[in-house]
Amino acid sequence: MPRNILGTVLPALKSLAPSRRPLVWAVAASAVLVLAVSLVLGGGNARPGAAAAAERVLGEVAAAQAAAKDRSGGYASLWLKGNDSTLVERGGDVPAEGAEDIRSIECGTGWLAGVRTDGKVYLRSSMAGTVEEDPAKVELPDCVSPEARDALLSDLGVQQSWPAPDAARLAPPEENPGYRPAYHLTPEQRWMNDPQRPFFLDGLWHYYYLYNAHYPEGNGTEWFHATSTDLVHWKNEGVAIEKFRNGLGDIETGSAVVDTEGTAGFGKGAVIAVLTQQHDGVQRQSLFYSTDNGYSFRNYDQNPVMDNPGAEHWRDPRIVRDEANNQWLMLLAEGHKIGFYTSPDLKQWTYVSAFERDGLGILECPDFFQMDVDGDPAKRTWVLAASANGAEEGRTTGLAYWTGAWDGKGFSPEGGHQWLDAGSDFYAAATWDDPRLTDGQRKASRHAIGWMNNWAYARELPTDGWFGEASVVRDIRLESDGGRPALVSTPTPALQSLEGEPVQVPGATLGDIPLPGLPESGAFKADIELEKPASAAGEARLLLQSGGRTYATVGYDFETGKAFVVRDGDVVAGAPDRAAGSGARTATDEYRQARAVEAKSGGGTVNLTVYVDRSSLEVFVDGGRQTLTSLVFPPAGKKEARLAAEGGPVSLKGAAVTPLAAIRQ
Q1: CA dihedral in degrees (579, 583, 589, 595; nearest 10)?
Q2: Domain 499-659 in CATH: superfamily?
Q3: Bond into 216 cis (ω within 30)
Q4: Are strands 254-259 and 270-279 parallel, antiparallel or unpaired?
Q5: How far apart are the C-alpha atoms of 18 and 2, rounded to whole Å?
């Protein structure tokens, strides 16, 4: 048997690896893939048993980790399919015969490795020389958490199992919910807008959003607090930072951080919030601190910590820890630019540089984080993001971002901006990582959430007693796919805990195919796999209907390679426009605008995953290479969905409709 080394088998593996999560009907194809990978790695010869192969490969990983420790003073990470070869570079070759994939993570004082062979996953850690198939039997280093272990298993294709949701949560509610969604977070009453970046503390995610209890009669927002164990189910904790209490105005967007070392002087582990307050049109930055894990905050008696220098736009501080330079870093939205400031203690801030861009309107809600391109620590880069206006590019508002370098004082972009979502309603987004994971895992993937709305028409929507909702939490990665790095987003895996039994739809030529299994609750997921027509023409369409009328269409145009969403038949699009006749573009004009994004597929199929709730659509194209998020407000009547084609024949390879449970009783 030829001795296959990690560096030489990686290109073959990448060419065979699936580019997206296979659908239910693709199991047979997956089996063929496993066989093909096995032949590449095994040279066509008979292989020993899975356990023996795993023990041999994990032994090679252990030897390489020991060598890396001796040579460089630390352990290293490895991911065969994820392009991370750091362990090979530091510790030497890792023979991979019999392995379909290998993943190893490190945490400074230890490591954990897994190998997938014959469809089974085996683990070994730095704590013992034994190889285990049962993850619970593996002794973990103190610095590797169970969550880090589970993330490693997920990278190796092990999907977490979830108990079936309660039947009552899958059923339609006893009282008509109107447009209140089943599985998206909304305020119980009144107004919600900007998400504030969550943090994890003492077993809970803590999330805040801007809330106005006096809307529409009164102005001013404050921070409303919600907690979660899984980023899907939320518990309301009430207002955490109240408005109009310190003479500096209301409470607007900012950042909450856990001050682990107590740099601000309020004790180790205090939660520090630095945010914008606005009074008489003047925006300033204030500090509030919490010593009870973020449930309540006190006003810092020397607020504001940053007084306005005379700027009209000076808001939305985003604070991150710059460990490489031992400092706190703040990004501030300043009109057409993002200002960078540094601080040793979260109180005293020094201006260091600015990043300026025209053509994107007034920048808001900046974000800044590091990610590894394709999961490879050797390609670690910074991502600068900001909510922006894409009108000059034929878009609406959304999240623009740049990749580049940070030297402790300034950001240098590598190329122009890109957009995270091409829909109408994904704004003021915040991203964050999971502190329970290893550093490499935190740089490979992070979470994101956005305000599912648009200022062009946010105050003209037909919800009753509540206004605004958040997107589902997504997981984002930075992938190059052989070209320019771009953010890819998928629904966070815990959303699978809401899934009921899927109803399968067999392959067919699209004509007028009703989708079976639509739940009466109005909350479901549609997975649709389309075959690329030989003519490279034709459109596939998912028609969402109510009372026999199409209110929204999700589609893919094979000729242009674009995915699109149209919502010109819903209640808002059909409502009289109060500004009609003025000659200017109106809110209804903006709402009716179709949204499309280029999403050309390099393979023979296109996958559309569509999350439908009572007042929204979230579309993920080919595993999240592109997304479109839109509010939709169906008219009254029986809800149906149909698959159709336009402009030429299109074949459906298969589809599934999965009901989704409610996150509230």
Answers
A1: -150
A2: Exo-inulinase; domain 1 (2.60.120.560)
A3: yes
A4: antiparallel
A5: 25
How far, in Å, CA of 101 to CA of 215, rounded?
53
Give the 3-state DSSP-derived string for 548-561, with helices as H, strands as E and coil as C.
Answer: CEEEEEEEEECCCC
Q: Which residues contact 363 (CB under 8 A, 6 or more apart)?
A: 333, 334, 335, 336, 337, 338, 357, 386, 387, 388
Which of 482, 409, 475, 459 is CA-nearest to residue 627? 475
pLDDT in tens, 355-414: 999 999 999 999 999 999 999 999 999 999 999 999 999 999 999 999 999 999 999 999
d(CA 435, CA 145): 10
**CA separation, residue 612 to residues 267, 620, 632, 645 (Å):** 45, 12, 9, 20
Angle, in degrees to the nearest 10, between helices 6-16 and 27-42: 160
- Residue ranges of the chain with per-residue pLDDT less than 70: 1-48, 577-584, 665
Measured CA to CA, the distance from residue 443 to residue 433 in angstroms comes to 8
By three-state DSSP, how is residue 389 classified? strand
The angle formed by the CA atoms of residues 480, 93 and 51, to the nearest 5 degrees, is: 95
Instruction: Return the CATH number of the domain spanning residue range 6-155.
Output: 3.30.1300.70
CA contacts within 13 A on the Cβ side of 487 = 31
The CATH number of the domain covering residues in 185-491? 2.115.10.20
Question: For residue 19, what pLDDT is reported?
Answer: 38
Quickly list DSSP for 105-155. Answer: EE-SS-EEEEEEETTEEEEEETT-S--BSSGGGSPPPTTS-HHHHHHHHHH
6 closest CA partner among 101, 71, 76, 73: 101
Q: Which residue in the list 194, 425, 433, 570 is annotated as catalytic?
A: 194
Report whether 123 contacts 112 (CB < 8 A): yes
Query: From residue 62, how far is each of 51, 122, 129, 140, 292 by CA, in Å?
Result: 16, 14, 8, 14, 43
Identity at 249, one-letter amino acid code: G
- Express each pLDDT in 99-112 by its tens digit: 999 999 999 999 99
283, two tokens: 């925006």
Nearest residue to 485 (alpha-carbon basis) of 526, 443, 521: 443
- 194 part of the active site: yes
Query: Cα angle vertex 357, ends 355, 358, to 5°?
Result: 155
Length of the chain: 665
The alpha carbon of residue 347 and the mean position of all alpha carbons in its chain are separated, in whole angstroms, by 31
What gap in Å lies between CA 297 and CA 256, rounded to an integer? 11
Give the DSSP H or E segment for 34: helix 27-42
Q: Where are the domains of the chain?
A: 6-155, 185-491, 499-659
What span, in angstroms and rounded, lies between the C-alpha atoms of 533 and 161? Answer: 36
Distances (CA, A) of 246 to 251, 280, 282: 10, 14, 15
Distance between CA atoms of 555 and 329, rounded to whole angstroms?
Answer: 42
Q: How far is CA 195 from CA 314, 431, 549, in A?
A: 18, 10, 34
CA distances for 244 relative to 111, 212, 241, angstroms: 50, 12, 10
Question: Token pair for residue 662?
Answer: 């409610």
DSSP 8-state symbol, 192:
E
What does the alpha-carbon distance between residue 535 and residue 147 come to, in Å, rounded to a whole number? 47
pTM value surpassing 0.85: yes
- What local confidence, expressed as pLDDT, does residue 188 receive? 95
DSSP structure class, residue 84: B
Strand bridging mode 120-125 / 111-117: antiparallel
Give the strand pairing for 111-117 and 270-279: unpaired
